[in-house]
Glycosyltransferase (Dyella monticola), 368 residues
Amino acid sequence: MGLLEWIAASLPALMWVGLLLTPWRPWSTRERIEADPHAASVDLSQITVLIPARNEADVIGLTLSGLQAQGSGLQIIVVDDQSTDDTGNIAAAFPNVRVIGGQPLPQGWAGKLWALEQGNAHVHTPMTLLLDADIQLQPGLLPALLAHKQHDNRQFVSLMADLRRTSFWDRLLLPAFVYYFKLLYPFSISNSSSRLVAAAAGGCILVDTQALQQAGAFASLRNALIDDCTLARQIKNAGYRTWLGLSRGVVSLRPYGNLRSIHDMVARSAFTQLGYSTLLLLVVTVLFAIAYGLPFAMLGSPAWRLGLLALAAMMLSYVPMLRYYHMRLAWALLLPLGAVLYLGMTWSSAIRYWRGVRSKWKDRTYST
């Protein structure tokens, strides 16, 4: 075996085995909070829920029903963000829910952040729960999240939603979405005092209202497309402690079902993750080619054992995520296919940006 061939075979093996051995274990699912449906009723009057809602008539009822089951005294504000459906009327029919009609989107603001900014003016409780309109909390989840926050003395805690898996494309790509998010933002580092990583899942965030205001609230990140991680960064920079974990009790109601829907979800911010850098995009492309392509190329060479080792380590790193979401381990065999699709979505995001569109979401286009 020539030197170049040995180096080529060693690179992906070192990458994947190294990933398994990293002390911060980005592939694990140890950071988690689950709902306790048998927990006693809890007084939640110290929390106000802020829900930005734009054309969410199909799901807002389930979201609000889930909140009603969490405990007593919970205050809920729904900001109806210029909906053209029945979102506001459905929300107003629930007890303890205040519906605020959203004002037109000012220039320089992202839609969700503008809705949250309007609702934020009406929050007068010590804590604020930022909840997406398509997120349903299972009974006992909010008390468990509150208990973790208080026990661990955190000012900002968030949970990654369990994304619906109803089709082949969902099962192929959505657990991998969480897997890649954890690789990009290792939870254990984000949850530490280190400021190298600051991450959050915007669908469900419980934050001290005072910390939110001192961090600049939503005006300080009004144009951010990755608003959750940007907010976590602001909170950390203000000297507060954050925590991020997984949960099967935070359920996304949004149906994807097909490749195009998942593409639109990823492409709206993939190039933003790279800071709109063409150089970083090329670096990521090369890294994906080494990590996912070289192991297969090496299987037909004298270095096939190293290629096989890389593939085994790659798929082993994905097993905890599949187990957590109760999926068949055979899906690990398709991780390279998912990687190719995600790389393609990232390039699609970049091409969209080069054409003058920074992002498209909820019938809104944000230009460059």
The longest helix spans residues 278-298.
